[in-house]
What does this fold into?
Amino acid sequence: MNFQKLSLIGLAIACILTLTSSQELCLVDTSGKRVPLRSINYNISIYETLANVEITQTYANDLDVPIETQYLLPVNPDAAFTKMEILLPNETVRMRVRGKDEAKKIYDEGKSSGKTVGLGSLQESALDIMSIKVGNIPAKSTVKIVIGYAENVEVQESLFYSMIVSSTLTPRYVSRLSPNTSVSISTGGVDFTWDIIATIYSSKGLQAVQSPTHQINVNYLEGKKTAKISFAQVEKPNRNFVLQFSTADIHQPTVILSEHTLYSTGETSYTAMISFLPELVSNPYNSLIISDNELTTIRKNRLASTRGEFIVIFDRSGSMGGSRIIKARESVIAFLNALPTDSYFNIIIFDDQYEAYSKEGSIKTSAESIRLASQFISSVSDRGGTEIYDPLKYVLQSKVANAEYPRFIFLMTDGDVSNTCLLYTSDAADDLLCVDLGGRRIIKKKK
It folds into this structure.
């Protein structure tokens, strides 16, 4: 299915919006008037490894006339949308999926006739952003926008589960490869709170639940087969919320059975999802969820016993300025000093151009080669735009240092690029190679 040609009609959805010039997070109508966001509420239910998320946002139109709004929503390309609707005082507007042209026509006709309508479509230049329009929000009324979706919970080092709730959209650089791209995102402070309520269900029993980013309350029920999580204090959405948990017998397979009734026929069908987590890494620590430092030690020990060709693609663009570039340089230098002795490495730095540290290809690790490469990285400063495509193409088409040494590619970037679709479908990737960018693989498009 080509999602770029589909639109959601009849409903608007919202998660994190663009900011106005006054730095208040809100809906903005076509004349620039604001519809302030009053609250954001997340209701998350996690069944073993599957998370169902429902987001409810409340807005108030304090104006004396109906307005049309437009804003942006960050979406997970791997999520499956299950519910999208606008809750008005006297009616509910629900989503329907239509072709993009048909959806736009329905939206325009509904708006012209005075109906409250919504239109959502994926940005063709950025498949992780949905553009939302809501037409004819009634005067002096409160509107609730609801979105529901399901996604898999991520696994960390084959040891525990982790889920991230995004809280921000960052400014994005528009590539010279897509000059007609229009993805305008501004950032600033927020003047409202958010609330997250999560419930975890596990037939195996939960052993630990924590958040490395926020203070939370955890209430265990049913012999620790259920846990209810909430914020321990009032929070604003100024950073992502991360929830981590581990279960008993985490490496034993689990099955989730779902029942679904077709409204058109009344027939009932069932879907089963089987998941299993191989025990790839042993946990040498007593804690059930290990800390970031302990994870680093595990990875360092594993790396020390691995040989290969290691290539770092290093983002030096303007958005990496300040503390970002400092931390990035420190991270690469630490990485270089932890490389296995019997290996090869290279560094590619890029902004709107790119440069290879070793233009002849990857070089063998040694005390001297690591020292010189570290000096090179220490001198890198931020500048320019974010052209990820060209350095990726260069690396993926370059000759491997040694056929017996597996190649590992690390892309270090803040991810602020608009033309992600070029990365998904480019011919830069070989059929046997892939790059993971923010949890999404960049692979060669099949002919």
Notes: Residues 1-26, 170-190, 424-447 have pLDDT under 50 and may be disordered.
